[in-house]
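Hi again,

Forgot to attach this to my earlier email, sorry! This is the prediction with magnesium ion bound. I've pasted everything inline since the attachment limit keeps bouncing my files.
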Amino acid sequence: MKDISTTEQLDNPTVVSGLMEITTDAPDAEPVLLSVRDVSHYYGNRIGCRNISLDLWPGEVLGIVGESGSGKSTLLNLLAGRFPPAAGTIHYRDGEGILHDVNKLPEAVRRRLLRTEWGFVYQNPRDGLRMRVSAGGNIGERLMACGSRHYGNIRGTALDWLSKVEIAGDRVDDHPTAYSGGMQQRLQIARNLVSSPRLIFMDEPTGGLDVSVQAKLLDLLRQLVRQFNLSVVLVTHDLVVARLLAHRLIVMRRGEVVEAGLSDQVLDDPHHAYTQLLVSSILQG
Ligand SMILES: Nc1ncnc2c1ncn2[C@@H]1O[C@H](COP(=O)(O)OP(=O)(O)OP(=O)(O)O)[C@@H](O)[C@H]1O
Ligand SMILES: [Mg+2]
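Structure tokens for the complex follow:
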């Protein structure tokens, strides 16, 4: 049975209130995947993020940039339904076209989405991997969570994914502790992508890595995004990473969005003084 307690089927779009931006899509336009309206979150008196609205379409990479403490991770965690916003709404359209209110997802549904349709890539691969399970097991576990049972198939798929992320097959039985930081991050990506998710959340995926390892990982991510038509919400403080991966950017400062637009536009012709400062500090650095 479908989880319809907190979801709405858009057979008749007009039945869903408060979603004008979604329901007014042109008939032949691809429906929006994630729609966020006026979302805020506070830690006590401190602003985590405030009045954020954004849309994400299938196959699109949206970069969230801004200095440390600007609210990037807070927003990302809100989008992934990790905690509810103090105000605002987040809607996600699943593979069957059902619209979910992410704030009202029952835990079981949220977990199902996280297993099947979503991925979350952490800056620190230790947070996204099981360090006491072999690399193959890390990938296989996610497949089993999606219903795979045949050991041979699971191992075959795990090996296939190790090769996709450029890890030699003879490392399949190693634990991630025996991997380098870059390999761990690639393994985390394989574990996330093996179940063909539609939407990946990434928080500084190349943050902890050496520059040369970072460059290789960026290449790989670009290739995977294109190959699997992934939608990604990418948090990064690194404008080089943002330009390479993201189609569109939002720039955050003190919890608010100060500028948004196509990546090249925002980075080549920043309008807000804060974005100009961010861009010029990169040029000087
Ligand atoms: N668990 C928490 N408790 C209290 N305040 C928090 C907590 N997490 C974040 N904050 C505050 O919320 C604001 C936004 O933090 P957030 O972690 O979202 O920023 P960020 O842009 O991801 O920073 P960074 O680039 O350093 O990861 C900051 O002022 C931060 O101090
Ligand atoms: Mg952060």
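Residues 130-196 form one domain. The pocket of magnesium ion (ligand 2) is lined by residues 72-73, 203 (CB under 6 Å).

That should be everything now.

G.
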